[in-house]
Amino acid sequence: MRKFCFAVVLLGFSGFGSELILAVSTEPPSLDPTTNAAAVIRLLLQNNLYETLVRVDERGTICPLLARSWSISEDGKTLTFYLQEGVLFHSGEPCDAWAIRRSFLRAMDPARGHVHPEYFQDIEEIEVVDPLTVRFVLKNPDASFLTLLALGDSVIVPDHDDLAQNPIGTGPFRFARWERGYALRLMRNPDYWDPARPKLSAVTFRFIADPVAQVAALRAGDVDVLVEVTPEIAASLRNDPAFTVISGPQELVQIIAINKTRTPFSDLLVRQALALAVDRAQLIELVAMGFSSPVGSHLAPGSLYYADMTWIYPHDQAKARELLAQAGYPQGFNATLTLPANYPFHVRTGEVLAAQLAQVGIRLNLELVDWPTWLDRVYAQGDFDLTVIGHVGRVDPALTLIFYGPDRPDYYFRRDWENPELNELLRRGALISTPEIRQSIYTVAQYIIAREVVNVFLQAPHRILVHRRNVSGLKVCSLYVLDLSEVAKG
After folding, report:
1. Class of residue 246 by CB neighbours under 10 A (exposed 0-12, middle 13-18, buried 19+)
2. 293 — phi, psi (to 5°)?
3. pTM of the complete model
4. For labeling, which of 29, 102, 237, 338 is most exposed (least CB within 10 Å)?
5. 358-385, pLDDT tens digit by residue?
6. Domains, the chain
């Protein structure tokens, strides 16, 4: 009865057929991405209710949003943004250069509880040049700063204290209602600065934790889109003519992290043999059901400045056995692969890896541990031989690859590994803003990380969405957001 009543209310708000209903597995704990780090807040609300100065598109490119264009000074310390005209917050307040300045001062104020104040610690001054021009002056050159402005931490908000319950942004949809434990509803913003968007009159996110129940709701027509789909469910639906399955690389790379302080993994020959023994194509087929991309470095295919390094260590069992013999292990060796039991994807990967590596003589003992144990033993203490885990990228390579450089010598998979050439490349990449130069820098950096087998890089699991055939315009972005501004239903 509750569901029927809710549907009647929805029809009363908007014309039937122009509302999109999406099933999501997790309910946000808050609706303010600046004071709560939960990724689901950004997934549902960034680019829909909240907006940033710039955004990341499905190709990983920085594009205009509230800023129609920008310029960066030669020394990389001054960024000037030229704003869209006629932008209003949902409250009716103008979102001009003064409002942009206030939004960032709010983020920089320790009393406001921003989840990542360190993102803005290099801002020396925010200048209002005129109502449609705002200038950021940095203490030091920071090539990743533009990318930081595309993250959910940098959404532009009015100076209000109750955004967690009553969110106000500039986006194509505005907050309508949050029915805890059931649904979050957004409605079309009639005063949106781009009159061509959005194409929907309303959006409702239904909170359905059980994947089987999500599929049932999709088949029954109760929802139009499944937002977070497992490879198994996607494989079961991809040949159904009633639905469309879309997928694409996200900012996530699955790796075998290696403790290089432990014998025999301190030996490069052993690490090379490990890399050669891995069959990425089989992993993608058996674990990801084809919904994944092979990777050979720590950047995912959708990342800025990604370079393909899978060619360095292609699957070659004979070569792997040869290198093990050279390293003094002609009969192979035993090792422990520690797996987080709460991540079935990583556990299945570990099982397939054990079979693959056994063929070259590397015999793995699979140890399943709960997540708190993994965080304590593996991540905090570095007490492991090998582990399989996923690493979420940070859009810009300067932020993603920082764990391989001198700034994080104690990071769990570094384990005393150091490369002066890589350190210098990462230092320069963080300072230089010219895209062509950065491309060269990060291509070489990825080559070094792959060549030295700091870790074994396996695959970039795709984000998968399933929608009914009458839905169009959905795209998968490498950033963990769901942009509904161009989506239509007909």
Report:
1. middle
2. -125, 140
3. 0.87
4. 29
5. 999 999 999 999 999 999 999 999 999 9
6. 50-161 (3.90.76.10), 252-463 (3.10.105.10)
